[in-house]
Each structure stands twice: as C-alpha cells, then as structure tokens.
Amino acid sequence: MLNSTGELEFSNEEDPEIISQLTSLALSDGKSSAGAPEKTGYPDSVYVMAANIFQGIRIEKSAQKVLIKYGNEPLRSFSESEDQSFQRLSYELAFSALKYQDILETILIDSCIFPSTTIPDHLSSLIIVMLYDFQDRKFQTRVLSDNEESISEVQEVENLLNSFKIKLAAALARCRIKHDALSIYHILPETVRKQELRASTLPLYAWINTCKISPEEVYNNLKRRGYNKVKSVLHVDDKVFAVDQHCYDVLIFPSHLKNDLINIDLFKDYKLIFQDKSRSLAVHSVKALLNMDDDILMVNTGSWYTVAHMSILTNSNTSKVFVCGVQSQAKDPDLKTLFTKMGCKNIEILRETFINIESKDHRLQKVKVILLLPRCSGLGVSNPVEFILNEHEDTEFLKDHSQGGISVDKLHILAQQQYEQLTHAMKFTKAQAVVYCTCSVCPEENEAVVKKALEFPDLGNKVQPYRLSPPVLPLCSLKEIQLSTDKFFRMEPSEITNGCFLSILTRERDPSETVSVKDVLARAAAKGLLDGIELGKSSKREKKKKKSKTSLTKAATTDNGIQMKIAEFLNRETKASANLSETVTKPSLPQKNTAQVGASSQTRKHKLAPHPAVPTFMKNTCPSRPRERHTHFIRPRPEDRMVALKPIEIILPPVFMPFSSPQGIRSRMPTQHLYCHWVAPKPLVPTCLPTPSLSRKGEKPKDDTRSSLLRPPRRWL
Questions:
Q1: pLDDT (tens digit, 9 = 90+) per residue, 615-656?
Q2: Is the distance from CB of 130 to CB of 54 less than 8 angstroms?
Q3: Where do the H-state alpha helices sit in 291-359?
Q4: Which of 439, 442, 622, 676 is catalytic?
Q5: I need a surface site. Which of 8, 280, 369, 702 has the fewest CB within 10 A?
Q6: What is the phi-psi region of residue 76: left when phi exceeds 0, alpha when psi lies from -120 to 50, beta otherwise?
Q7: Is 688 a catalytic site residue?
Q8: Which class for 579: exposed (0-12), middle (13-18), buried (19 or more C-beta within 10 A)?
Q9: Which residue has the higher pLDDT, 11 or 23?
Q10: What is the reported pTM?
Q11: Tell me: the pLDDT tens digits for 263-282?
Q12: What per-residue string of b and e applies to 507-540 under the rule 16 or more CB within 10 Å gives b?
C-alpha cells in the first residue's frame, strides 16, 4: 500500500475553479483541443504494459542527478496485453512519458509526492506513465467501464495522484512559466516537435496481397464501403484512398481512418497489410533485379510482413526467399501459421545469423540478390511507435527518437555494423546484386557506408567487382530526380512519407562469360517462353564462317526460305537480262561508215546538251561498238562480253518497286536500251528526249525492239 503523510491534508483542498485555472496553463498539446474527443483514460492493463515498456527504455541518469529511483522488477502482465490494439496504446503512452520524463520527475518532486510518501521503487514507472495521462486529461477523473478488471497497483497509484491533484496542477503551471512556454509541448526540442507534427499528418500505407485478391477487387470492395479513389489523400478528411506512384500494389489512406480500416475484412483476412513505404520500396527494387528462377536472401528483415511481401511478389516465379537470423524455434509455429494465412509458399528460414553464414553455403548457390535492411538510427521516421509495431524494431529505437537525435558514439557503432554486413554480403560470389535500404537520413549510415564498402579490397576471387547502379524505381518528381543524381534513391521526411535511403550494388558482367544468343533462346525455350518457335536454325553469320568465300551462291541457297527465293529470282533475272541485251543490240550490228556515226553523234551532242533529263554519258561522243559504250558508266570487266549488274539493284522489298505506268518501267530499264533507242532512225517509245535529225535513209526499226523495251518487269517472289 502507498503511505502518504499529507494525503488526507490535500484531499479536501480540491477546488474545481482552481484546478480549471491551473490546467488551462498546463495543456500538454500546443494545438487547440476544440472538436477533439474527451480523453477518459486507459484500461488498467494498458497502464501496466506501458510501465514495463517505460522501465526498459527510460533515460538513466548519473547518481548525482537521480531524482527518483526505479526498480528492476517488472509488473505482472495480463493476457489481454498481447492484443495489438493494447500494444499500440501501451507503446504510445510509454513513448509520450519518455519524451516528458524530466518534466514529469520535476513535477513529482515539486508537488512533494516523493518526499512525503513511501513509494516502492518498482511502482515508479507506473506513476510516471499514469501522471502523464492524468495531466493529459486535465486532471479529470478516469471513467471506468463496468466489465473492466481492476488491478490493485493501478488503483493505488490512481488514488495517490487524485489526492495530490491541486499540487500537481500547480507544479505543472510553474514548470511552464519557468520555461516561458505556452504548454509543456513547447518545452520539447524542436526536432521532436517537428517529428510529432509530421506524424499527425502521415498517411497510412498498405500493400495488396495479390495471392488472395487482385487490385481491382480491392478497389471495388473499398468503393462499396464508401471509399473514393483519388490522386492524393493529403489534407482530405473524407473516406478516400490513392495508389502509390512508386509501387503499383501499395495503397495510401489518410491517417484518421486507421481505426475504421483495421476492422474491415480486407485487413482481418490479410488481403491488405499496413507497412511503412520504405519496406515496399526495398522489395520492389529486388523484384526488378530478379530473373525467373533467382533466389533472394533477406537480412535483418524486422517485420515478417516484409518477408511476406517479397514472397508475394515472387509467387509466380520459381524463386525462394531465404530469411536468416531466426534463432528461436518457438517462433516457427506462429510464423508458419502467419505465412499460411497470407498464402506464402516459397519462404525458407535459416537459423544462423547473417555474419555466421558462409558465402559458399550450398543452400544459397542460386541466390542472386541480397536484400539488406540493417538496424539503423531511424532518424527519418516520423512515427516511431507505428514503425516499431510494424517492423518489430528494438525498443531502444524509441529512446533515440524521444530526444530528437542520437549520440555520435552510437551512430559510429551502427555504421560499423552496417559496413560489416554489407561487405559480408559482397563476399557471396554467386550473388549479382545487393539492395541496401535504411530508414535513416544520416549520411554516416547511408552514403558513407556504401562508398566505403565499394572500396573493399578484392579477396582474389575470380568474380567481377561491384559497382553503384542507378535506382530501378520510377522517379516521380523533379525533387526525386535531383536527390538521385549520384545514383542513390532518397526520400526526405515529409508530411506524406518517412525518410528513406536506398542503394543498389550490381556486379559488372564478366567478359569471359558472355552468353550467346543461342544460349539465351535455349534458356527461354526451357522456361516455356518460346512456344511454337523453332530453334534448330543457325544464324547467317555462323553459316558464313563455315563456308568459303568462293561458294556464296551455295551458301545463299542453304540459308532460310527467303534467301533461297532471292537467289532463284536473281538467277532468272540474270538470264532474262542477258537475252534482253542480245535482242536490243541486234539493230546496231550492220556496218556504219565513220562519217555517218560521227555526224550523228555530233548532232545528238548539239541537241541534247541543254536538256537536263539526258544522262551525262549521252552527252559524250558515242563510240563505234556497244561494248565499248559500257565502259563509260559501268565498272570495266574485260573478261566478260556481257555483265548483268542491274538485277543486284532490285533486291528490295516489294513496296519499293511498284511501277504503274510505262514511264516508270522505262526509268528502270538498263542503260544500254537507251543507247539502242538513239541509234534508231525513228523512236518507237515516246520519251522526253528530242528526236535526232540525222538517220540512215531507208532503214526501218524492227518490231521486236519495241516489244523488248516495253516488256513488263517481273514481280518480286
């Protein structure tokens, strides 16, 4: 029992008016409480659990500065304290008491509770957490429910605080005046106040369990419940949700909807899971680096929901998710039950800690990506209570956040641990990528650790070194692009998200291990990705290496069906061109005297020179024989009497050779046909060229010349 020499003395001094005036000077919140529901207190079990949490995270002081002694014995806990809602309330109450520990201890001393009462040391933590709630309720009496089970220790402490109500309110008012603060909220460090402000507006993030439900079904379910899909949930008081821009399976809800959401079936059935966005960014980065059958090794996962999310994203692959560091076998049944409820089937748990796992462990030979989520200061987190509950971080996490910072010595210790884990991950020779993610904004834990690890000396392994790779996540704003210029993905703490740092290290490809196209196709066919496609044909380049340079025609005929058709077409066109050339040159075989030829050529040169449509070779004096005439515009080949080169020029797709008129046909006729046309006394084919005035008398052109010139072209096969 608590004994107080002045308990009866102060019990009759209660004056509601005095208490009202004092409490108006000692509000625990800097914001107006208008419109907020009246606080009625917590169940007894919440006070007990909060006291035990505070006992483990309280700030210990030196012997010269100790004002209140705390015992080492925890209070007896109850079964209902294991409920998640009770845990959240208990952690919030313990964290609030921790932030105001110095102020609350000063109030207890100033109100003469400790000098005038004999309080067991193991109840000191319970007095601190209940005093914080007492002043937060403006020293109003707690409302108890009828079916609530009372706890004797809680009842004793509550009676003590009620007996010192006026003195406690007066001591609180003096503390506020001493610090010249509007409320004790303004006594907190500025970093803590900003953190609380961000936490009050921070949205809720939840990822969709696509093994149990599709995103469209989730949208429809929420719409039936009155939720509307919007682009942004910021500063929205209605029932709305939005889809995250970085992760397609993550939804965003306003923070005030938390109590409503946890009671719907989507969350009860593990179809929607609350989790910090930084963890979703990490698993999506891993997913972008995976092949179909690559395994993943997860280190320091914290929350099992992160493991489940990774498993859900790789459910359609043959990948396995290895999780290391689960040493307690007592957790196995609970974990298996959780994973079964969530539909996860590809998770394997390793007992060893990550540092003790050999890099050549036979179980991890297919691990290609390592996800490293090291323990960090978490100075980018706005709501540490939610982060601890979701990520199962150590309660020391709360102590650092209660003071708005972390000591330099502790920061160096964390950075060294992070460096050791990252360098150990880089020793796994089969791994091709490491994803390093923290929820801190301290460069000592982020950029400095990664850059130092990249300088890790080579151990002599015949593997390529790691290099820093750009983010694989989409950059959705100009600010994100600016923050990622050095290949690091960063998100600063804001009113919409916690701080986050993400780095991707990938191994450079070994030039000696270059995979051929044939191997890639064979691997794809083995996975069933090339159904109906034959892979037995070799490439044209490989065939050319096997054939000699003198057997080009034979190599072309042994290629695919298209090349065979092209070869056949070329052969037929070569024969047709040769026959056509012989037919056209027959009218020029009779002997001509030199004077006639010279006069004719001079007349043509004089009349054709100013016409722009005449080919350049026609402007020169024509030689006496057709074969010599070829040497002016075709590459000379003296060993052949007739060389058919024009068919090579028509090896084009059909769409490039449609000739709908005789004029188009004439534009593609061999050049020797033009010459034969000019030596004729009378042109048979109408052209834009002028008719020569000099010709042989009595000579008539043959009809076969006209038929040869107007011969229709052969269509492409």
A1: 444 444 444 444 444 444 445 554 445 555 555 556 555 554
A2: no
A3: 304-313, 332-342
A4: 439
A5: 8
A6: beta
A7: no
A8: exposed
A9: 23
A10: 0.67
A11: 899 999 999 999 999 999 99
A12: beeeeeeeeeeeeeeeeeeeeeeeeeeeeeeeee
